[in-house]
Amino acid sequence: MADITTLPEKPVKPRNAASLVIVDTAEDEPRILMGRRHARMKFVPDAFVFPGGKLDPDDFNAQPATPLRETAYLGTDSKRLARSLAMAAIRETFEETGFLLAKEGSVGDTAGPSWAHFRETGIAPDLAAIEGIARAITPPQSPIRFHARFFSCKADQLTGTLKGSGELEDLDWYPISQALKLPVIDVTEFVLHEVRNIHTSGVKRERPPLFSYRNNKPIIRV
Length: 222
Fold this sequence. Notes:
The protein has five helices and eleven strands; from the N terminus they run ββββααβαββββααββ. By secondary structure, it is of the alpha+beta class. It has one domain (15-221): Nucleoside Triphosphate Pyrophosphohydrolase. The strands form two sheets. Strands 1, 2, 3, 4, 7, 8, 9, 10 and 11 form a nine-stranded mixed β-sheet that branches. A two-stranded antiparallel sheet has the order 5-6. β1 (15-24) and β2 form a beta hairpin. The protein is globular, with a radius of gyration of 17 Å. 39% of the residues are buried. The model is unreliable at 1-8 (pLDDT under 50).
């Protein structure tokens, strides 16, 4: 399991971030799109992760093609913040993988440079296609911290061709049983189990769980 723990002088404030867990159910065992972060990266180097990244101010201004469903909201986030996080997850997924979760629409004139491709091609994020499955907060002892929200969608809802940006190596579809054997951090392992449980039972938790830490030990709150 990848290590994210070093000791800063005092805890840093977590930054908002979002990931998109893309699930391919075409085979008996679900496959998940994941990639490995470069060894030179400061945060979880060499760890396998889902496409995603930190929330950009432009994500608040960009407009979606479809609204975010009530079932996709995560925890105590406001509707505005939840929508912006979902937008960030879709934008980051496109930037890192080449896949689009979008429909015909307009992101609006106030969307910044990071939304240029969407604006120029006349498409906007399809927020109605995603669900919220979990959130997590990096442990206090980490020098880089995120409050991450994990959304999910089905692979057959995507358009585009898989072509990594170079940020993630070994980008590919991994069966969940294989993904759990990859070098992943505890949060990613937890999310993979959540996805498998949802697929097996066909039921998503009414309230997405929060993976966090108390006294340097991971805890799960529902």
